[in-house]
Amino acid sequence: MITSGSGTGSFEIMADDDDNANVDNKFYAEYFGSDVTGINYANAEDVAFGKCPLTIGGSFTADNKTYDGTTDAIIATDNLVLVTVLGSDDVSLTGYAAQFASKDVGTDIEVSIIDDNEATSNLTGADASKYSLSFTGATTANADILAKSLTATITGNPTKVYDGTDVATLSSDDYTMETGVRNRNHYN
Asked: CA–CA separation, 132 vs 62, rounded Å?
């Protein structure tokens, strides 16, 4: 004779099971059983269901760039896809960008996909409201940040007394070094 017991069960309602589904709706679940005396019982409750989670898969490449003091990256080829879209649901990825892991000069720097559309959804399409998106774990690429050339400009009117050489000594008032990168100019 069993005097007590427990059990678990699971079921799944996916976003496209009902074209009229609103992710804020609830569904009605009933479960049945009997107690130790053999009396049958039933219970029912409303259970909320939520959006189907999506992640970003596929691949992309990023352009190498010359140092500009930022982590901004440019996507060169874009073969990104949404992972786990159900059936023929109409949902697309939008509002994303690429970002280097470091702003510093280097080779083979990781480039990640980031949310570039914080004010609105990154998903579009007739079924977009049935889904949520995570950028965590999205595919990455690698690219280089190349050194930027400096431009030296002579300022003032430096002079040199003839000494038979072509070497002149400049004071810090005689030149500036410009990188073309905001807040990265060197003025002596």
From this structure: 26
pLDDT in tens, 145-188: 999 888 888 887 788 889 999 888 888 788 787 766 655 544 33
Averaged pLDDT of the chain: 79
CA-nearest of 4, 91, 19 to 55 is 91
Complete DSSP assignment for 94-112: -SEEEEES-SSSEEEEEEE
Q: How far is CA 107 from CA 58, 63, 120, 147, 158, in A?
A: 23, 12, 34, 11, 40
**Do the beta carbons of residue 5 and residue 11 sit within 8 Å?**
no
Place of tokens 């570039």: 116
C-alpha span between 44 and 88 (Å, rounded):
32
Phi-psi region of 184 (alpha: psi -120 to 50; beta: other; left: phi over 0): alpha
